[in-house]
Structures are given as structure tokens and as C-alpha cells.
Amino acid sequence: MLETELKAFIDVVIRYFSQVTGETVAMGVPYVKAQDPVLLDFTGVIGISGARRGCLCVTSPREMLQALAESLLGPDGRDEAAVADVVGEMANTIAGNAREAFGSAFMISVPVVLHGAPSDITIKLKPPVFVVPIQWRAWRSFLLIGLE
Amino acid sequence: MEKRLIDILWVLTSGCLVFVMQAGFAMLETGMTRSKNSINVAIKNLTDFGVAVVAYWAVGFALMFGPSAAGLVGAGYFAFDARGGTWLAAFFFFQVMFCGTAATIVSGAVAERMRFSAYLLSTLLISALLYPVFGHWAWGGALEGKAAGWLNTLGFVDFAGSTVVHSMGGWMSLALLLILGPRTGRFPAGGAPRAIPGSNIPGAVLGAMLLLFGWFGFNGGSVLAFNADVAPIILNTTLAGCSGMVMSLFVGFALTRRWNTAFAINGCLAGLVAITAGCHAVNEWQALVIGAIGGMVTLGLEALLERLRIDDAVGAIPVHLGAGVWGTLAVALFGNPELLKTGLGFWGQLGAQALGVAVCGAWTFSLTWLIMKGIDRFFPLRVTPQEEQDGLNISEHGSSTEIFDLYRVMDEQSRTGDLSLRVPEEPFTEVGQIARHYNRVIGGLQTQTVAKSEYLDILDHVADGLLLVDRELRIGPYYAKATEQILERPGLAGQGLLDLLGPRLLEKDRPTVRLFFDMLLDGGKPLRSVLKLSPLRKIECFFEAGAALRSKHLDFHFRRIERGGKVERLMVLVRDVSEEARLGEAVRLERDRGRSEMELFYRMLHVDPGLLSEFLAGLRDGLRAIGSLLEEEGAERLRERLQTLLRHAHALKGDALLLDLGFIADQAHAFETRIQGLLSNPGEIQPGDFLSLAIGLSELQKTQGQMEALLARLRDFEKTLASLPERPESLLAAALRNLGERAARDAQKKVDLDVSELGAVAIPAPGRKLVRELLVQLVRNAIAHGIEAPAARREAGKGETGRIQVGFAHRGPGWLLWCRDDGGGIRVAELRARAVASGRHSAEAVAALSPAELRDLVFEPGISTAEGVDLHAGRGVGLDLVKRWVEGIRGKVALLTEPGAFTEFRIELPEDAFAGEA
Amino acid sequence: MKNRLLIVDDSVIMRRVLEKYARALGLEIVGTAANGRDALGLFDRHKPDLVSLDITMPLLDGLGCLKEIMDRRPETKVVIITALADRETGLAAMRLGAKGFIQKPFTEAQVRDEFAQVLGLAGGALVGD
């Protein structure tokens, strides 16, 4: 995994969070996991193929997404549907930006949103998995990158 | 009233001529309709005559020519009996023919859809009621030679029946057509009217000729005598018929640019109908004009009916009603009053004529409509759609014709798709010819279809994708079923190949693929070279599979299909070669892995299994420690975290070097260098800076994984070794000597490492790792910092080869470990300068330190006296680690040194130092 | 009459190798050029039947040179010889009117086959009447 590629993915995600929230979003110290890390309440999964293969996930706690939805939609953002929307939207935007950032040598899949950690969906994270914590207000999301 | 014999002869002859008109109508109507109805049309023309004659005999003649009751209706002669009266019989014979004519006009108009029984009913209606009653009004008293009917009395003139016979038939036709509706397919919903072709136009022409011939008697006989009037009437009749024909034909041609036979036939009949009312009272010119206008009226009315969507199968209404009305009015316009003998002026005559026309219409149309509509409610006048489709020959008369047989087989064929059916071939007939050709076509089709179904079978079962695309790259209707599976998309027909493929390819390849297809489709480009440049050979395509993308390698081959030098289509063969590609890739990976594994293996074989196992445990722990350090929550104290990471990395490097595992040492060194780089950055350290460390860690982890795997394979080997008498000290000694040699070589120094005192006492197993690591750090330190370069040693009057002595022994209650070199000792001035340079101490504080305190500086992190940084020294980390470890188990480190003479580290470890370590 | 060949390649070695192969095949070499501009000069002077053309060259690259050649004498048979694995460039050359394509590294047989194909001759008989 090249550092520049990793960096580009992180930038895409950080930029997304910053733009959406309009607040400073901090990246934590990245680390490595050999096996699949635990997923939080909602996870957007983006498959990647081509020059590198594997996938990219953004996994977030429900509370964070609720807060995010509220900050986007106001009081309307409290329901479950809005939360799922936010995750889907986030995954789409990140996938789109990633497409732009990586362009022609990567195939980027249509993102899929997972609730919880469903056992029937294997996430194709290729070890080593790089975990990048993303801190917004009191919550932490994780960007998981597992590419060959 | 007695008649001359010649008059009787003439009237009888005329009656015969009028009968010929029945034949004319039969020929005309069958010719102008479809052959599936030919029998029905023909038989109607015979049977309506029969019904009409019987009905007219029973009541019709009585109502028409019986003694008049107030000019409204005749009464007398019911069930007609001539009682031997020759003239009376001749008169009846002549009049019954007229009645038959009036009736038979209807048959053509309603042809091809009216039930036969209903038609006979309508014949009964006209011949028993409508014709006789109106006939009485117009002609009543003719038998007596005086005007008796009320219209007749008012001066209405209709010499031979333009209105009485022809218009009446027309009016009845109109009413019936409105009830019946058009034939199926004549006026398609929302489309232009469709002409229904006649089946035998030459027959229709003969019919028209017979009608013209019959008309000589129709008009000529109406004189009811053979006198001077007869010849001019027949002449006028002929002239009008011909002028109507010519006019209609030419005007029709001018309008449609076609010499349409119907224009000629109906024009002729229209001229004849028109002249019928006034043929006795006009001259030749007038006859021509009347006939010509009659033809025009017919043309116009035909167009009008089509516009109104009234379907008159043979044009009976335009001819008989249209020209009949015109002819009746023309009597007033052209008729010679002297010959008319009504005593009316022009307007009076015109009024009388118009009245006659209107009364005929009102009487005939309304009665027909009321009666037949009433009947229709209980007893449909029209045949069913299926019967109409089959043709009235079959449905009404049960007679089959060869054309019907042809239709029947064709129908069954279209229903069952059974191509083995053949139609009967009647020799010597036109339909038979058609049948033979049809059979030939079906035979060919059958052969081809069988062949095609074989091709389709092949396409369904071939394992590779095979398809044709057109110039727009659209996939043709037939392609190998496997294609759907390969492209993971059902229903490919009509889809664009490029649209299907594009999203499956990497973006960078898409323009190339498009260009490639352009070149393929350009017949002028050399195919060989274009194919050589195909980007679609074993190309990787990506398909969605849940959240991930699955890749397939597809191999495309192309052939041009050219017609007239132009590439019309491309044949495309596509195979899924993922398996091959995967195997190839696996082989390649295996080879690469094998290569690096061999390297690892070679290195590991040179290491004692026990040490290796320990090393790996240490590596695992170290990497885990690094990992958890990174994973630690929060972004505070980043600099301190880096310091800790540095120490871990340094320790890993030391271990690796000890075992001569250079590739790990290199990685650890690179990792260390990254940390150093971050630490040397004076600015604030960002979490993002740790990214490169995470990557470095992942690389180390990968190596560790590989080694673990290899170790598992080495396990048997290790077991064998374990069964041998264990002398770990000697192994340690050998390993240390190795390290010493390498470090000396790298530092370009000469060193003699004395390990003889290591083997004196067995090191308790739990402590081996610590002892080894302490010794490694101390030896590296001694070589890097203690022993001088050979030149310096020479200058100092020592031998070029430095001497390092290490030992381990039981001392008192604990253990003693030492490392002594005969190098330059601690260079105080240099140490001071480094301490200041490290930024941890001010120059004043350093200057104030006592020699003992100064010595302690060597144990501080970040202070090193080695000049460069290499694998072995220079980071100021080794002694820092030593001190931490030793103090970690409550031991003590002592440093003895004499500048220019020696440095000795003495480490005392408590008795229980190794008890806690497992 | 011998078929006349112009060799355009920025590598001296490549020019030599092609010259050697071409001679063995009985072609008459009318000139060699190391860049597109020189090549056009030689082309105008000698009007060769066949041009072997490299893609990446200084001054005027292969595609540019090919376009000029096609503008001047479209009947000229141009064979692209390039190390570019990039198919798009090869296809672009095809579109401009190149008649053949050889990818470096090549063998003598490949060169012979391609030249024979492009000149419309069978089985490597390159000397026309």
C-alpha cells in the first residue's frame, strides 16, 4: 500500500466530514490490524478493484450519524431513515470523490450500506487493514482501508 | 284493351332483355367482390328473382296495377291470373322483370356480409310492398293507359324507372348498409380506407355489357308498344350509357392517374340509370349530357360514401340512387314538354320530379330501416365475424372453393406453426398455381427453419460467447446463450456492446476500446494490425458482487463481416479466461513468494531454532507493542509515543542483527529512520504523520507473518534439534561472535570478541532472552563507541585489533554480566557537547556535572557519541534500553571507564531476576 | 524494381538492426532518419514505398510525422515500429493511415512478415518486378 494512496483516501474522507459538518474534523493516529476490525452501527462499504483491490469502509456509531443527520437536516434528521440516508450519502460521496482522486486505474463499486455487522456479508478488506480514527465532536468513526 | 301482336312481341322480347340484366348483375357483383363470397353473390341474384316473381305474382302486381284506390294503392289481380289475356300476360311478364331488377340492385351493395336469409327477407319486402306501392303512385293505371297513381297525377314523370326501380333499390341498399355496417377491414380504425379488391374484373366487365344489352329492353320496352318512339329511346339509352362511361373514366383518370375499370363500369351504368327517366323526352345531345353528368354524380357520391364510411361493395348506391335521382330531375331540366305531356311549366315539372324523388326516398328508406332494424334485433342480418372471415360461400352455402382450402391450410399453419402442412394443389387453376408456389415457399422455409433451429441449438449450447454486432455495435437477435453468463446480463439483443462493456472496464482503457472498434469497423484499416492492437485480449473486466467488485478476464476475438467492401457486422467471440489468468497470476506469485521465501529460509536455517523462536516471540511482542501504541486512543503526547516507538524499533533491529536476519534489520532500520525523521521535525507532530509508521508496521508484520509460516514448516527440524543436548550458551557465544564480526566490518574496525567466559555457567532459561539482548546492546555499543578505528589505535600505541570481553557469572546472591573493551573510554568532552546538542541540558548544567554524573549521560536517550547512523549504533538508544531493562528487574548498571584505556559495563542482576519471566 | 524503404527511429541501434533486416529482405533503403523532421525531408526527396516509423521521437513525433506523410502521399505504406505497449497510440496511428504495426522487441521473422503483408506480397518475397 503506497502512502500516497492511503493519504488520498484519508483526505477524501476528512474533506467530506469537514465539508458536511463545517467543523474541524480530526484524524487520529492510524494503525494496522491484521484481521477484520469490529464494525460499528453503520458501515458504508466501497469495493475497489483494478490496480489495487480490496475495499474501503467508513464505520460509524449511530449517535454520531444522528448528530450528523441533525446538523444537516435539522430536527427532521432524527429518524432512522435519515440516519441510513446519511450513511448512504456519505458512502456515495466518498466513492465519487475517490473515483475522482484515483481515476482511471481503479474500478470503484457502487457503495453498500451495512447495518451492524451482518454475518452474511463478507467485507473484502484485504489485510493488512489500515484503521484511521476520525474524531468529530465526541464521536469516533473509523476509516478502514484494506487493499492488496 | 287489345294490343297489336308486334307490340306484344316487343314487350315480351324486352322482358327477356330485362331478365338478361339479372345475369348482368350476377356477373358484375361476383366479379367486383372476393371469390370467397362468389357463390353467395351469384345465388342471391338468382334467388331474389325467384322470390320477387312469386311475391309480385301474389300481391305486388295487384298493389301496383290493380284498380287504384284514391291513387294510393291498387287492388285487384291478387294471385295474378291473366285469364287467357295475351297482352295482360305479356304486361305482367314485363313488369315482374322490373320488380326483379329493383330487388337485385340491393344484392351487390350488401354483398359479403349479409345473411342470405335476411337478404331474401329484404327481397320479399321490396317486391311485395315497397316497389309495388310506390310503383302504383308513379305508374298506376299504366295497364289501362291512364294516370292513376297520385304522383303520376301530379305530373311526376319517370319513364322507365330511374326512381321507381333504381333509386328504390339504392334507397333500400342505403338503409340496409346503415344497419349492417361496413365489411371487416374496409375502414380500419384510425387508418385510411382500404379498397377490397374484386376477384374477377373481366367477369364484371361482361356483367356491365349484359346490363347495357338488357337496358335496351328496359327502356325500349317501357314504351309498351313497338312504335316510332322505340328506336330513339334505345339510341338515347346507348348514348347516355356511353357518355357516362367515358366521362367517368376520364375524370377518374385525371383524379387518380389510373384507368380504373370500376370507373368505366359504374360510369356506364350511371349513364344508363340517369337516362332511364327521360329517355323518351330528350334528344341525342341531351342524352349525352344526362349520361355524362350521371357518371360524374356517381364518382362524387362514391367519394362521399367512402368519407362517410358507408361500405357499398359494388357501388350500387352511387349508380342506382345517385344517377337515379339525377336522371329523374333531369327530366324537368331537359325533357321536351310536348313529349312529357304533363302540362306543367319548368318549375312545376321540377317540383313534381323533386317530390317524386323525395317521396321515394322517404317511403323506401324509412320503411326498410324500421322493418329491417326491427328484425335485426331478434335475428341479426349480418353474419358473424368468423363467418365473414371464412367467406359466405362456406358459412352460408357450405360450398368450399379451392381458395378456401388454401386459406384453411394457411390458417392452420399460422395457428400451429406446423411447417410440414401442404395445401392441396388443384392442377389447371390459378389457385392451384398459387398453391403450388406456396408449397414450394413453405418447403424452402421448412428447410431453412430446420437449419436455423439447428444453429440456434448450437448457439444455446456452445460454451463460449458468440455474437454478431452491427455497425452501431448493437448485438443481433441471435447469440450464444453463454454470452449472457459471461457478460452477466440477460436479454442482450439490441443492446450496445460498448454500453455493456464500458462500465466494466477501467476508465483509462475505455477510449482505447472505442478507438479499436472504430478501426475494426473501418474496412480500409488492415485487420491484422488492428487485431494486434486489440485492447480486448484477456482484458480484466469488473462486475459488481455485493459491496465488492469481482474481476474476470475476458478474451475477445473479432471477425469482420463485409459486404461490398464495407464492414457490415462484426462477429465477436468472447471467452472467460479468468481461470487461466488466475493460474498464471498464482504461478507468478508463487514464484515471487518462493524467491523471497528461499531467502528467508536460507537465513533462518543459519539461526539456531531456539533463538529463532525466541526472536520471533520478541518480534511478535515488539510489533504488538508498536501496534497497540499506535492504536492508543487520543492524539496527545505524540512525541513521547514516538520516543517509545523508537526504542521498540531499535530493540527489534538489535535482535535481528544478532541473528543476522538482515532483511528484518533493514526494515526495522527504515522504520526507525522514519521515526527519527518525525522526531527531528521541530514543529508539532500530527496524527497524520503516523501514517508512514502504520505502513512500516504493516510491512514488518508481513515479514513476521512469513517467518512464522516458515517456522511452522521448520518445526520438525526444530524438534530434532530440541532432542539434542542443549548448549544454548555456546550458540549464544557463536551468535555474539558473528554479530561482533559484522558490526566491526561495518564500522571498519578490527575487533576480537572474547566469549570464553560466557559458557562458564548456565543461564537460567527464562533469562536467556534478556541476557542475550543486554549482551547484544553492550557489544554493539562497545564496537561502535568503545573500540577506536585501527589508525587511532595505532596512534595511541595499541594493537590495531581491539579486544572485547563479555562474561556472565553467578556472583554472591545474584548474577553478574559484564562487557569490557580496551577502547578509548568515555570521551568526556565529546559527551558534554552531545548532551548540549541534544537540547536536554544547558551548557552550564553539563559543565557542572561531576564525572560520575557525566557518565550517566551515556544512558540518556538521544545522546550518542557515534558519528554516523548505521545499523549498529548512533541513535543513543542502545544504552538507554539497557538501563531500562536492567532497572525494570531491579538490577544495577555500573560503568567503569578510563580514557584511552577501557570501558566496562557491569550489570548486577538480583537472584530472582529471571523468576518472573516465563 | 526493388521496394524502397525509409527507416525512421531515434535509436541508432534500432536503425542498424532494421537496415540489416531490410537488406536481407531485398529492400532498397533510401535513407534513415533519427527524428520526424529529418524523416520528412528524406521522404520528400526519395518518395519511398515503405516507411518504418517510430512513435516517440524528438522534434516531430511519429504520429505527427505519419500525418504529414499521409497528407503528402497517402499511398505510402507506413509500418509503425514502437516499444509502446500503449495500444491507444497504435490505434491512433492506424486511424491516421498506418498499414502495419510491429511492437518492439521484434524478431527478423516478424519484420519480414509485416513488411510482406503491408506490401501485399506473399511469403516474404519482397523484390517486386
Task: Describe the protein in words.
The complex is a heterotrimer of chains A (148), B (918) and C (129). Chain A has 148 residues and is α+β, with helices and mostly antiparallel strands. Chain A has a single domain, classed as Chemotaxis protein chec. Chain A is built from three helices and eight strands, in the order αββββααββββ. In chain A, strands 1, 2, 3, 4, 5, 6, 7 and 8 form an eight-stranded antiparallel beta sheet that branches. In chain A, a hairpin with a 2-residue loop joins strand 7 (129-136) and strand 8 (139-147). By secondary structure, chain B is of the alpha+beta class. The N and C termini of chain B lie far apart (158 Å). In chain B, a hairpin with a 2-residue loop joins strand 4 (539-545) and strand 5 (548-563). Chain B has a five-stranded mixed beta sheet with strand order 7-8-9-11-10, with helices on one face. Chain B has a four-stranded antiparallel beta sheet with strand order 3-6-5-4. A two-stranded antiparallel sheet of chain B has the order 1-2. Chain B has 33 helices and eleven strands. Chain B has five domains: 5-382, Ammonium transporter fold, CATH 1.10.3430; 385-418, no CATH class; 462-576, Beta-Lactamase, CATH 3.30.450.20; 584-724, Up-down Bundle (Four Helix Bundle (Hemerythrin (Met), subunit A)); 727-918, Histidine kinase-like ATPase, C-terminal domain (Heat Shock Protein 90, 2-Layer Sandwich). Chain C has helices at 12-24, 36-46, 62-72, 87-96, 108-119, and strands at 4-8, 28-33, 50-53, 77-82, 100-103. The radius of gyration of chain C is 13 Å and the shape is globular. Chain C has one domain (4-119): Response regulator (Rossmann fold), CATH 3.40.50.2300. With 129 residues, chain C is an alpha/beta fold. Chain C has five helices and five strands, in the order βαβαβαβαβα. The B-C interface holds B 511-512, 515-516, 518-519, 522, 525-526, 528-530, 532-535 and C 87-88, 90-92, 94-95, 98-101, 103, 114, 117-118.
